[in-house]
Amino acid sequence: MAGPPIHELHYAQEPSVDEVPGPNSQRLLEKQSNVDSSAVAYPNNIPLAFEEGKGATLKDADGNVFLDFFAGIGVYNVGHANPYVNEGVHEQIDKLTHTVDFPTEPRLDLIEKLDDIAPGSLSGNSRVVFGGPTGSDAVEASIKLAKYNTGGNGLLAFRNSYHGATSGAMSITSNKKFKKPYAPLLADVVHAPFPYPFQEGRDPEASVEHALDEVQAIIEQPYGGLADPAGIFVEPIQGEGGVVTPPEGFLQGLRDIADDNDLPLVFDEIQVGMGRTGEWWGSQHYDVTPDVMTMAKALGGNGQPLSATLYKEELDSWGPGDHAGTYRGHVPAMVGGLRAIEYIESHDLLDHATAVGEQIRSRLRDAAEDDPGLGEVRGKGLFVGAEFVDEAGDPDKDRVEAIQQYCYEHGVLVWTAGQYSNVVRLLPPLVLTERQAEVGTEVIADAIAATADDAHA
């Protein structure tokens, strides 16, 4: 068994919160506001200063213990301070940390392990290029790879998407407010609709048909708008967009269109990969294999910064130095990634995430039976979204903010998502115990009930 069982990883099975933010958190928050960038965002929603983390729990600077249903936006899939991961990382830091792209045992071991767990026909037929510390770096690499192999320059992405904050990744991201101050970005990018039956008022089959018709028109019709396509870029399950799970047939339809037009199909697995959804990769729920996939976030194991792009072997046409990056040789992060995969395998965390995720969604759906404002509960594994609307059926951002605040005050950290910020998004570590899931979800259910009267007043 790799490391201790999951029930030994945490401070507690239940939160323990007194005053929030406490005096030490307030002091650090004030200091941060005086010296840190004005781009700092997360403390504006959850005003806390953290001191320590263990498993699926966090302790703030005042000793309050929280259940973490956020996990650093899906970074801590094997929990905070996982001892099996930390042990390997600490040993590696004492030996060697940075090797650019010279070979090391951890680098080669992680590449081989990623090939082992790669989806479908990519397993046994893949190459990996490591990038800088963020998912955006992996997305940039995937864009370059697609252009390099096709000679095209046009990119097809999707509405409601998020791929990162660097120029190329931001270009295929759909958030206009996020992009506007930095425009113009990449010149030839077209965004097609992503099937979203709840918001579209369509049944799932019609939603898929509409989206695929648009994709096909953009790529194949003479007036489709994308002059020289280089690839199709999509999240198998949209994250920032609101945990939007596409209906069956959509990803397969994209696969067919890509094949018909000799285009690479690129899946962004940065948030949904590494076991988050109860499969290693989100695409495996749909039995569709991409040509290229990006990964980051949980890839570094214990928060170590690491990104990678995995792609089919026949796309490995780069020459030496055609793609580069200083931190593509961060060896401790590679050890962390390998050990995280081993821990997930050893403790059957894919099946665990599937079961506990369904436990959470089931409880939230029970809450929705008496609350028309909770419009839809969706997701896969421990990737859960709950979308809220007002009496007119419009997005209810205010209620989601109130739910987040209630949960924070009662010791459960949740985050938001969706183009209107009206989705409660849950990304707890895969090591979340059944008891923690029960306790945390009850707090969320209480928050839903406590905010219902105000929402329908």
Automatic annotation (TrEMBL):
The keyword ATP-binding does not apply. One of its GO terms (molecular function) is transaminase activity. PROSITE patterns: AA_TRANSFER_CLASS_3. Pfam families: Aminotran_3. Keywords: Aminotransferase, Pyridoxal phosphate, Transferase. Its cofactor is pyridoxal 5'-phosphate. PANTHER family: ACETYLORNITHINE AMINOTRANSFERASE, MITOCHONDRIAL, AMINOTRANSFERASE CLASS III. Belongs to the class-III pyridoxal-phosphate-dependent aminotransferase family. This is Aminotransferase class III-fold pyridoxal phosphate-dependent enzyme. It comes from Halobacterium bonnevillei.
